[in-house]
Specification:
alpha/beta; TIM Barrel; 27% helix
């Protein structure tokens, strides 16, 4: 079952302070492999991965259905922590919640303390994920407190926001992945079903993700600059599914490794 009819309504309440009972949702098991494609569309469905991570707006229901027919599961990419000027709902975000640029053209950090404003917007995005048949969601840019956002965000603000995101995803019948935010993993591992990290090998940060493996939850590692020989052995030893991607996150991928723990040999 995907979702109870009332769960979508409850999801909006969760982001602005409500509560909901547990619901069923899919989560990727250890041993899963991940493909991410946000550009170079249409989606290349031939990549040998068990899970595809695709954009909420740019992906249609037919693509999700086709991947399901091939035995794949599909994760819905949603930018939760920054405003993107090209999105169809960009004008719904009041200027008062838009802060400094996050370094990417057309993106600005959001005031995540304003759950009253952001909650309904993000819940509508989750509704879209559900309507297209996605199985889980990946929320991006959920570490604003550690960046120069233009707002005085604290670690506590971030924990509250990220936990509300996870609860809202679950209330919508979606599994949920934590993107980056390494320092808060010990506090968030119980709220999230899997982790997606960028460049932990490049910055020597991969050990911070091991609480997910210990909890029996997969870690998907993405590297952009390192040769596969530089990160694959370590990833395999840690039990991560690792791959090298172009920064544009097109269909190209190398070294899709199982996230089931392997011996160093």
């Amino acid at each position: 079952m995907r979702i109870l009819a009332t769960a979508v309504v409850v999801g909006a309440a969760l982001l602005i302070g409500g509560s909901a009972g547990a619901a069923g949702w899919w989560a990727p098991p250890p041993g899963s492999t991940l493909q991410i494609q946000f550009s170079g569309l249409p989606v290349d469905e031939s990549v040998p991965a068990s899970v595809y991570d695709l954009d909420a707006f740019d992906t249609d229901a037919a693509t999700v259905s086709s991947l399901h027919a091939a035995g794949k599961h599909v994760v819905c990419y949603v930018d939760a922590g920054t405003w993107e000027k090209w999105r169809p709902d960009a004008d719904v975000y009041p200027k008062k919640v838009r802060g400094k640029s996050n370094g990417w053209p057309g993106e600005k950090w959001l005031d995540i303390r304003r759950l009253d404003v952001l909650g309904p917007i993000l819940s509508a995005r989750l509704d879209q994920c559900v309507s297209k048949g996605f199985d889980a969601v990946e929320f991006d840019n959920v570490d604003g407190y550690a960046n120069k956002t233009g707002f005085k965000l604290t670690a506590g603000d971030q924990l509250t926001f990220n936990r509300r995101l996870a609860s809202a995803a679950h209330a919508h019948g979606l599994g949920v992945g934590l993107k980056n935010d390494l320092d808060q993993i010990p506090d968030l591992v119980s709220d999230f079903d899997f982790a997606i990290d960028e460049q932990c090998a490049q910055y020597d940060e991969c050990d911070a993700l091991t609480p997910f493996v210990t909890a029996g939850k997969p870690v998907f590692e993405v590297e952009y600059k390192l040769a596969t020989a530089k990160f694959c052995p370590r990833a395999a030893a840690l039990g991560f599914a690792a791959m090298r991607k172009h920064l544009a996150l097109d269909a190209w991928a190398r070294a899709l490794l199982s996230s089931a723990r392997k011996s160093a040999s």
